[in-house]
Amino acid sequence: MTDAIPEPRGAEARPVLTVEDLTVVYEVDEPVTAVRGADLVLHRGEILGLAGESGCGKTTLAYAVNRLHRPPARIASGRITFHDRSGDDIDILALEDAELRAFRWEKLSMVFQGAMNALNPVATVRAQLRDTLLAHRPGMSKGAIRARSREVLERVGVDPARLGSYPHELSGGMRQRVMIAMAMLLEPQIMVMDEPTTALDVVVQRDILREIVRLRDELDFAVVFITHDLPLLLEISDRIAVMLEGEIVEFEAADRLYREARHPYTRRLLGSFPSLSGTRGAFIRDGGEPSETTEEQV
Question: pLDDT (tens digit, 0 to 9) for every residue of the chain, 298 residues total?
């Protein structure tokens, strides 16, 4: 665990989410602690990156914040508090089922990894946006639903004519944009994005990242952006938390983490991406020792 939680870069210190000493255990034959003593503070309007290798606990932490776990997963200890714009503090772990259903998407939404699996394959985009709106705002008129659905698609760069399309009729990038549109449909204060661009080519990835940053600036919501791609987080994040084997081992402003990474694992992550120019350096193994490589021009 880190010694102190850093302040966000370029953002007011107004928290929207606080995670304190969170531990998540999978109760299997030999219990596995997937998240251990995690502490996070997310501030309004910031993009907080959550980095680490596959299996380190990133998605488990995100699911805990959303209360999406199913057995054998169990939140063993800790506290998750949502700080509403109204000034009220909401204990997410204490919400009953009906309260939790009302809280999700209205206050906090999630863009799941793999948009094709997250979208209903037998329902049109229009139907899925409509169902989300009616679940939270049952008195909304058909005209208002239609207008809001068109508006959110336009915001993420999708032609509203695609409202009648099924997920298999959309490209991977368009499906991901539809998922982002659905997540912002009710204007939540937090959006959790789990590997939202991993399966996309670099050009589409770049376009979607620009849209995320633009929408954040325009609508002032906070983002938790989960990925194993540390260079990507260095580009878009205000602060970055690095996870290793279920623990947050470093939590720092993005620019400072790039310049002055303290934890050996963070330094290995930073050193694992080759430069496009200059000399080829030594690959650092898990034990911290460089492998034998030849210094040469690349």
Answer: 444 444 444 445 689 999 999 999 999 999 999 999 999 999 999 999 999 998 999 999 999 999 999 999 999 999 999 999 999 999 999 999 999 999 999 999 999 877 667 899 999 999 999 999 999 999 999 999 999 999 999 988 899 999 999 999 998 888 988 999 999 999 999 999 998 877 677 777 788 888 888 888 888 899 999 988 888 899 999 999 999 999 999 999 999 999 999 999 999 888 877 666 666 655 555 544 444 444 433 3
The answer to whether the beta carbons of residues 230 and 270 sit under 8 Å apart is yes
Which helix (H) or strand (E) is 75 found in, with range?
A: strand 73-83
Backbone φ and ψ of 258, nearest 5°: -65, -40
Count of CB atoms within 10 A of residue 38's CB? 26
- Phi-psi bin for 60: left (phi > 0), alpha (psi -120 to 50), beta? alpha
CATH 1.20.1420.30 corresponds to the domain 1-107+188-262? no
Q: Which residue has the tokens 């770049």?
A: 206
In angstroms, the Cα distances linking 148 to 48, 85, 129, 186 are: 28, 22, 9, 9
Q: How far apart (Å, rounded) are the C-alpha atoms in residues 172 and 2?
A: 37
Domain boundaries, the chain: 1-107+188-262, 118-187
Give this prediction's pTM: 0.85
